[in-house]
Design goal:
mainly alpha; 78% helix; globular
Amino acid sequence: MEQKDYLKDIQDIKQMMSKSSQFLSLSGISGILAGIYALIGAWMAYKTIYFDTSTMGAYKNLVISEEAVIRLLVIAATVAVLSLATGIVLSIRKAKINNETFWNSTARRLVINFLIPLATGGFFILFLIEKEMLGLIAPLTLIFYGLACVNASKYTLGGVRYLGLTFIVLGLLSTWFLGYGLLFWALGFGVSHILYGAIMYFKYEKK
């Protein structure tokens, strides 16, 4: 009996250490909603790119006007803000339900490690836009977002690491198939977010 008690104590200690080093309030529903926002944004971007009278040329050699580029940036920014706001609100709600602290040292480490690759990629992409190298934007957003997820995954649920690796693979494939950036963007930010959000919800949240 004593040996069983010791093993149970060790297991309890391991669980407490895991909880203290991982941000567990990440909401799977927020991932699903982020994917839906992304698919709506991809549809709006598709209409802007391929049905806007200010764009010309075949799908691989589109000439996009400055006005269309600004519109695409607004769509991307709106999707990002909605996804971020939804993630924060639902994660705070989940933390309250589980009687956990939302903003703690682990959450701060998660955010810092997530933002380093993401901010680096953001500035890099802005430089590419200024140089009018638009074909690489979709692949690089996927790759840098994937790197951000992998870098932050050690501070949260393990599925985030695999989500990040999926984004990196899609980004590399998008670089090879340059004319289909919007499709890979929709597969990454839309479909992948929905799938991984659903997996996280049913694995960690649904009771």
